[in-house]
Specification:
The complex is a heterodimer of chains A (238) and B (329). With 238 residues, chain A is an alpha/beta fold. Chain A has a domain of 165 residues: 3-Layer(aba) Sandwich (Rossmann fold). Chain A contains 10 helices and 10 strands. Chain B is globular and about 50 Å long. Classes of the chains: A alpha/beta (238), B mainly alpha (329).
């Protein structure tokens, strides 16, 4: 059961009385790319944030590398190698791009190789190299997203959770970002769980796909083998 | 690996030029003061400026860097002033013990308050700090041990003159600048700024929010306590009204806004402007606050980054830079 890198079992997360996630289960294999899709309000973001330790679950367990990380503080989860890229490329607007990236290696895990990681991120996103001294608030949406992604790479993670990195970006920029993410996945063997609005894109990018509806995971399976009608009914509940 | 170690040294060394300048100027002023080259009146102005720089840096650490807008810094000034008064007046112990007691008391107070205050954010945090200071003021008004509203007198013999207080304030000011610069250049400084810009993203990056906030709050409380304590040693007496008045924090905010919030050099310039303006305006009672307020509004409108902040962007030079930009390889 726990041989998956990240496994979430029967997770329930509430905002007050409202359950945003209710007994959701999924597991992410090491080295793979998994996608999580679902309509607005299905609980995808809450699920990722709970996995990163930003919400305390009401019930259920989260295991990472076979260890129970349920209820651990976020810094402890980052230290173990599970990183979240929050929705909308949340950068630190008044800090320079480089300081933003260095924040990624804040955790002891990433600190050792911060220099090398920084060079790798600049090699991956040359646009950031040119803007390294500029405040992150002055960047374009795509560059901000690159900064947020680069920040996650800086932590030297085993698994990265991407929350809708394509939100509000031009198709060509989205294509570019996903290409870089696949490069990292291939070269560094970093496992990836991504939330994506574009269902077709998510299926093409991922090995495994999960569909969420009203707080629960309603369908899961290898992306290539899921039938469109099953996805549709899991997605809309009809 | 060797390369990375070398550039790491460069990060730490980057702070040295600015600190060298500060300590150099500090040493000159110290020599001038001890050598008797400064008139007593000049010393009094500089004494005030040094203390206000310290207070400004302490507030800036919270408001400009950590994203914690406090309106209750006067709590630490009053507590520290009263601690010195009790230690020297009631128990007849030496001054340095009083100053130490004040700083420790404020650190303890800040630690205890943090459990309540850190549950609040933004405006709520600001108002809560103010309420805490007001409550303390009320408490001291009715506390027999500190002579209620009647105030207390410091009893130090021989009573330190400005010639002794001047070097103390100068050393404190240099200490504050050094501490704040080094703190901000450390990883902790990075986490403070990240927290100010986006607490949730900072947590996702692995920052322990409570720990970072607490260190900044404690450092700020201790610096404020030391400066406030020296101020009341110079004053000789302390009342609940004078120790716990909001005017203290108002002046800190003024100093930081005028100088440039989120810059280390800002409060230095702000404190000079504030002390000189206040002295000059003392001749126009009633108008002085209106003019100070008008100056603040004009600065916010036309120089939103403050004097130092604007200079830094125009001249592309940063005094006390807390950024680490090793040269590209």
């Amino acid at each position: 059961m726990h041989d998956a890198l990240l496994s979430i079992e029967g997770l329930t997360v509430c905002y007050g009385d409202f359950p945003a996630v209710s007994s959701a289960s999924l597991s992410v294999a090491a080295e793979g790319v998994s996608a999580l899709i679902g309509a607005n309000g299905a609980g995808k973001t809450t699920l990722l944030e709970a996995a990163a330790g930003l919400h305390r679950p009401k019930a259920g367990k989260i295991f990472f590398q076979g260890e129970d990380i349920t209820g651990l503080p976020p810094e402890e989860i980052v230290r173990r190698g599970l990183c979240l890229v929050p929705q909308g490329g949340r950068c630190f607007p008044r800090m320079s791009v480089e300081d933003n990236l260095l924040m990624g290696s804040y955790s002891p895990r990433g600190r050792k190789n911060a220099r090398q990681s920084l060079e790798r991120v600049y090699a991956l996103f040359p646009a950031l190299m040119q803007k390294r001294k500029a405040p992150a608030g002055s960047l374009s949406g795509g560059q901000r997203q690159m900064t947020a992604i680069g920040r996650a790479f800086m932590a030297d993670p085993k698994c990265i959770l991407f929350d809708e990195i394509s939100l509000g970006l031009a198709p060509v920029v989205i294509h570019d970002l996903y290409e870089r993410i696949q490069t990292v996945n291939a070269e560094e063997k970093t496992a990836i769980l991504l939330v994506e609005q574009d269902t077709e894109k998510a299926l093409v990018l991922s090995d495994t796909c999960f569909v969420m509806l009203k707080g629960s995971v309603t369908l899961s399976g290898p992306s290539g083998k899921l039938r469109p009608e099953d996805i549709r009914s899991a997605y809309f509940g009809i | 690996m060797k390369k990375s170690a070398a550039s790491k040294d460069a990060w730490a060394l980057g702070a040295l030029p600015s600190l060298g300048i500060v300590l150099g100027i500090g040493a000159c002023l110290l020599a001038l003061g001890l050598g008797g080259a400064l008139p007593a009146n000049g010393m009094r102005y500089l004494f005030q400026i040094f203390l206000y720089i310290t207070l400004g840096e302490a507030w800036n650490l919270l408001g400009g860097y950590a994203g914690l807008t406090s309106l209750g810094q006067q709590l630490f000034i009053g507590l520290s002033g009263y601690a010195i008064a009790v230690v020297t007046g009631t128990y007849r112990l030496p001054l340095w013990l009083g100053v130490l007691a004040g700083a420790l008391l404020c650190a303890l107070g800040a630690y205890l308050l943090s459990f309540v205050l850190f549950r609040m954010h933004g405006m709520y945090f600001a108002v809560a700090t103010w309420v805490a200071a007001e409550a303390m003021s009320m408490f001291f008004f009715s506390w027999k041990y500190v002579n209620q509203g009647g105030g207390m007198t410091m009893r130090i013999s021989p009573y330190p003159t400005i010639h002794q207080l001047y070097p103390l304030a100068l050393i404190l000011c240099c200490l504050a600048l050094t501490c704040v610069t080094l703190l901000l250049r450390s990883r902790l400084g990075l986490s403070l700024m990240a927290m100010r810009d986006d607490p949730e993203a900072a947590a996702a990056a692995g920052v322990n929010l409570r720990k970072s906030r607490l260190i900044a709050y404690l450092a700020s409380a201790v610096l404020t306590a030391l400066a406030g304590g020296l101020f009341f040693v110079n004053q000789g007496t302390i009342y609940p009204d004078s120790g716990f008045q909001i005017t203290w924090t108002v002046s800190m905010v003024f100093i930081v806004i005028i100088g440039g919030s989120g810059t280390v050099g800002g409060p230095v310039v702000g404190a000079v402007v504030y002390v000189l303006l206040r002295e000059y305006l003392a001749a126009y009672p009633g108008w002085s606050n209106i003019i100070l307020g008008a100056v603040t509004i004009l600065v916010i409108l036309f120089l939103p980054a403050g004097i130092v902040g604007t200079m830094q962007t125009r001249m592309k030079f940063e005094l006390f830079s807390q950024r680490r930009h090793p040269k590209p390889e």
